[in-house]
């Protein structure tokens, strides 16, 4: 978990830039994505939790929806705090609770993305293996989902408990932490970075293998594979593109930013200011993930896609006479 440092030490000539970006630009951007994500994830939850949990893929996707909704809940608190309302009490709530919930939800969602890629890999490439049969069980997927939530809570919740020091004169989230809290903060930050890079490498391996397998299969039977490859690439691209765009920039600068918070004497005030600005900008890209995940649901899950098309068709049916059915069926990747 990163600190939200509302009184970050900044060079005098950069203070205005910081206040405009962090207290005017970012709140507007967070408000926009909060409104969009509320609609998109509300629709996703409405559809997903009305369809049966018939596969491991649906289990993981439903848990991604839960993680996104929890992450979305933290945005209004951040917007109000960045705009300067609520005083120190609101800043304390953000540091101790909503920031922890934000990172808990984000890394839980990342883990479920990697579990989806692993499940797809075994189902498509190792479909005859005993491991594939084991991982396809809904009960196993539910157990892995519970294990994921349990591990992430173990690493993240102490950040809330150990943020228990008296309010400092110069406010910062790190100053609210006990000595153990600062150590645990660094441990959990590096753990989360490790989770991200393991998930990223696993997803690249799994989806590269799937794409090659699909290409070889259609080439071997000498069929026109353009449509199949297009569907395959669309599913792969949607998940990897969202993952790379939202999370890679933030994790490139996260480790040096965390070190700048834990070892301030090794970084100049200007360098800490630059790292803080980069962290805030790339963190916004990570927050944008809640608006883009519904794209993954649409391309990766046939049940979700067909349910959404049916809902859209029923809405159109109320406004005009039906012309073309919506029995579209594109097989899951």
In short:
With 333 residues, the chain is mainly alpha-helical. It has 11 helices and no strands. It has helices at 15-48, 56-73, 75-82, 87-124, 130-135, 138-161, 179-220, 226-262, 269-287, 289-300, 302-319.
What does this structure look like?
This protein has 333 residues and is an all-alpha fold. The protein has a single domain (14-308), classed as Rhopdopsin 7-helix transmembrane proteins. The chain is built from eleven helices and no strands. It has helices spanning 15-48, 56-73, 75-82, 87-124, 130-135, 138-161, 179-220, 226-262, 269-287, 289-300, 302-319. The two termini are 34 Å apart. The model is unreliable at 4-16 and 322-333 (pLDDT under 50).
Kindly list the characteristics that best describe this protein:
333 residues; mainly alpha; Rhopdopsin 7-helix transmembrane proteins; 0% strand; globular; disordered C terminus; transmembrane; receptor; membrane; G protein-coupled purinergic nucleotide receptor activity; transmembrane helix
């Amino acid at each position: 978990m990163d600190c939200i440092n509302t009184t970050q030490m900044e060079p005098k000539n950069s203070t205005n830039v910081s206040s405009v970006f962090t207290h005017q630009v970012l709140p507007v951007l967070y408000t926009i994505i909060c409104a969009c994500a509320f609609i998109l994830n509300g629709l996703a939850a409405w559809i997903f939790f009305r369809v049966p949990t018939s596969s491991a893929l649906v289990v993981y996707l439903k848990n991604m929806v839960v993680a996104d909704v929890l992450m979305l809940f933290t945005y209004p608190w951040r917007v109000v705090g960045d705009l300067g309302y609520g005083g120190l009490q609101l800043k304390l709530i953000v540091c101790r609770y909503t920031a922890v919930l934000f990172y808990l939800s984000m890394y839980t969602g990342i883990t479920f993305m990697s579990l989806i890629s692993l499940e797809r890999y075994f189902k498509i490439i190792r479909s005859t293996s005993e491991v594939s049969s084991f991982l396809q069980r809904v009960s196993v997927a539910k157990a892995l989902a519970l294990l994921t939530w349990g591990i992430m809570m173990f690493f993240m919740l102490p950040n809330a408990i150990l943020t228990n020091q008296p309010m400092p004169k110069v406010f910062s989230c790190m100053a609210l932490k006990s000595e153990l809290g600062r150590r645990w903060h660094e441990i959990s930050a590096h753990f989360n970075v490790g989770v991200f890079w393991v998930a990223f490498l696993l997803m690249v391996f799994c989806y590269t293998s799937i794409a090659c397998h699909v290409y070889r299969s259609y080439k071997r039977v000498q069929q026109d594979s353009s449509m199949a490859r297009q569907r395959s690439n669309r599913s792969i691209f949607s998940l990897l593109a969202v993952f790379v765009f939202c999370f890679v920039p933030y994790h490139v600068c996260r480790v040096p930013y965390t070190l700048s918070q834990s070892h301030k004497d090794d970084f100049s005030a200007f360098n800490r200011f630059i790292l803080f600005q980069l962290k805030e900008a790339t963190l916004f890209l990570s927050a944008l993930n809640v608006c883009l995940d519904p794209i993954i649901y649409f391309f990766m899950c046939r049940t979700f896609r067909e349910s959404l098309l049916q809902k859209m068709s029923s809405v159109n049916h109320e406004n005009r006479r039906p012309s073309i059915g919506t029995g579209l069926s594109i097989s899951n990747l």
